Amino acid sequence: MHDNALTPLTVKQCTPDFISQLSTPSAEEDNWLSIFPIVSQLVQHFMLLPQPLLIFNARFWQAAVAVITESTDNNHKQLALQNYDQQRLFGRLSLLKEPEIDFLQGEIYNFNHGSLILHISPLLVNPNLWFLLKAFLIDRKLPATSAVNGDKLKGQYPLAPSQEITTKIILVANRYQLDELAQIDPEYNLVGSLFTELSSDIKSTDKNIHALHNYCLKLIAKRNLMPISTQALALLFHHLSSQCEHQKKILFAPELIENLLRYGQLFNTEESLLSADSLQKALDIQVQSQSLVENFSDQALLEKQLKIQLKGQEIGQINGMSVVELMGYPTEFGEIFRISASDMLGDGEIVDVERKVELAGNIHAKSILIVQGYLNHFFTHIQHFPLSCNVVFEQSYQESDGDSASLAIFLAVTSCYAQTPISQNLFVTGSLDQHGNVLAIGGVNQKIKAVTRLFLLGLLSEPVTILIPKANQINLTLEVETLKLISRKKINIYGIDHCQEAFPLSMKLAFNEIVIRIHKRIEELNKEDEQENSVLNRCLALFR
Description:
Layout: H1 18-23, H2 37-48, E1 53-58, H3 61-71, E2 78-81, H4 86-90, E3 92-97, E4 100-104, H5 107-110, E5 115-119, H6 121-125, H7 127-139, E6 168-173, H8 175-184, E7 193-198, E8 201-203, H9 206-223, H10 230-244, E9 249-251, H11 254-265, H12 276-288, H13 292-302, E10 313-315, E11 317-324, E12 333-345, E13 350-352, H14 353-356, H15 362-376, E14 387-393, H16 406-418, E15 421-423, E16 426-428, E17 431-432, E18 438-439, H17 444-456, E19 464-469, H18 480-487, E20 491-496, H19 503-506, H20 511-542
Parallel strand pairs: 1-6, 1-7, 2-5, 5-6, 11-16, 13-14, 16-19, 19-20
Antiparallel strand pairs: 3-4, 8-9, 10-15, 11-12, 12-14, 17-18
Helix pairs in contact: 2-3, 10-12, 11-12, 15-16, 16-20
């Protein structure tokens, strides 16, 4: 039995609060590098150890460079290269006047006793460059043959170098790129090397928030940017938190931070401090500039080309919530879609139309079987379950996958079997396991924003209910417009742990009452079947 006394989430539960953290004075001057204690320590150790290579797994190039340079002694020679070629690293041989050969040295030689920070991409584009670099890392020598034209020019080469070059290489790559390097050279990690990884998502503890604040202040001073107000900084941190989709995490992305601060200044010409309003305008215009496909979706709803029902009650019909991802498109957005179920005589099978026509993937197919197994579990004592159900994602014309519609499908099917209507001012997302537990899903903020857009479009005015997995409450970083609707009780979000908690909110009945209704319907169908068989047997008896 599950507790049905659920209450909707408050505004405070739906967004992180950075104002209170920033308003609390720091106990000490927080060096922003304290955010990454292990990584910075390993970089320092690498500079002292004999290993020539450090593989630095990081999502953002500028974040990696910032941490590495800050962790290194100021007297240490260092150069970061995101784009380079053979000549830039190993130099170039040029024939001046035979037999004279000019040798323009590369950065590996120039930064002897120092270090080079290299992005991995040029090595993946030109695998030969990686093998040249690998040879240097093993031999610690720079033969003339490694330079451009080294294997082409004829004549007197410079003498083979006897000097050992101690330039250290820090190779920045993400895990997908490292996998690609492993395809090129399965033994790439046999080079004497260390490995570390930089998480772009940092915990938003008070200490880390003050340290990140300190980083922003140093960045503003270094780039000669406009000072920022506390409210604007809190908004910036909220945006960084929304990129992680986690209330207790915040994104460390130097390039994104700097770009937003610069963009916000365009709307802040009359004030000495960058205001939250100016920064919000910069965020809004960036969203609007990437919302063409989202606008087409909204227009289809306004013109009723996409049919959704937002009022009343219907049997076997529910509003699901999805995230639309388009190839080559920089952003994702949420969309509301209609799931419908229709029953027929059968054997308890849920017929997945999307899968039948190959518009859904394996994860989706798995989720349907889980829903079917959980529902049929309550009727195992019945020798023959006489119903089956067709499930359709209405007006879905593209391939889809995922299990986030499991809860919505379960509600639609049980509504259909029990002939009990579902409230249509309800929006549902959530995955299920075979015990009925509601599991976390992705894109929860985009999905809730899709409901907010219905209010902004004028398609909704009355209060609505949104059901999400309780596990996703920590992922809520909702925007201002949504928070306003929550505070006015127009949007009521419920986090649920088990699918049975959804029934009082969707059908105004407890789950056991729905099961009783399905049992009664099965009994009626079986009685009708018995009566038909009895009449048929009597008719056949007349001809015996």
